[in-house]
Amino acid sequence: MVRDLEYEKNNIGYDEQYPQETGGGIKCKNYEICETVLPSWWYECKGQYLCTNCDMIFGTWSCPESNVFKTGKGILPIVNDTECPICLERKRSVTQPNCEHTLCIECFKRCYYGDWSGAPEFPYSKEVEDLYYMADETYDHIKWKTDYPLIETWGLEYDKWDTDMIYKRENEKYLECCPLCRK
Questions:
Q1: What is the extent of the structural domain holding 49?
Q2: Residue 70 pairs with which residues in a beta bridge?
Q3: By C-alpha distance, which of 70, 18, 58, 69 is closest to 41?
Q4: What is the torsional sign of CA 26, 28, 29, 34?
Q5: All residues at 6 or more sequence positions from 23 whose CB lies less than 8 Å from its CB, including other chains
Q6: How many CB atoms neighbour CB 133 within 10 A?
Q7: Same domain, yes or no, for 54 and 36?
Q8: What is the mean pLDDT of the chain?
């Protein structure tokens, strides 16, 4: 693949990591699906415009040591006004990675990424949440318990929710196949 300067120029994206003030980054070729913005140096490193998740989930790669071989399209074509076989609505749709069937983007995301709604919300402000996640092991954990007592309860609820979601995804691997042909 040759570097596509026209693509880079027309697909500048912004997110928390690559804000507008810094010039942003480049949208993944599957941006409508994954919503990932890549750093401007990505092509020099990877030789493509796919984020790591899209490359691993939808791309072609192999690990001969583990005897794992994955074939997929990588870049998933988007089509307009197609009936989704799951929700039965006519919407903007994405072609499956291993066949030519399509699903609307919302159903595709639900199948491939799961329904991660229902996570317990952090009980304090965004500023406190940022401090909490940035705190390292040396930070006074007793202070967190006295100043922010709801964090401990939230942590237990979140751990249970996370464990339940991991179990659910492990037992719903069939959702990562086309609902029509099971490829």
A1: 5-70
A2: 61
A3: 18
A4: negative
A5: 12, 40
A6: 8
A7: yes
A8: 86
24 found inside a domain: yes
What Å distances lie between residue 132 and 125, 139, 158, 166, CA to CA?
Answer: 11, 10, 14, 23
Exposed / middle / buried, residue 129 (Cβ in 10 Å: 0-12, 13-18, 19+): middle
* Model confidence pTM above 0.85: no
24: phi > 0 → left, psi -120 to 50 → alpha, else beta; which? Answer: left
Q: Return the residue matching tokens 């409508």.
A: 32
Q: Collect contacts of 50-58 with beta carbons under 8 A, ≥24 apart.
A: 50/74, 50/75, 54/28, 54/29, 54/30, 57/97, 57/112, 58/30, 58/97
* 122 falls within a domain: no
Establish if 161 belongs to a structural domain: no
Give the highest mean pLDDT range of 62-66, 114-118, 174-178. 62-66
Q: Order of strands, edge to edge, in the sheet holding 102-104? A: 78-83, 90-95, 102-104
Which tokens hold the place of 122? 């952090």
Let me know if residue 13 belongs to a domain: yes
**pLDDT given at position 76:** 93
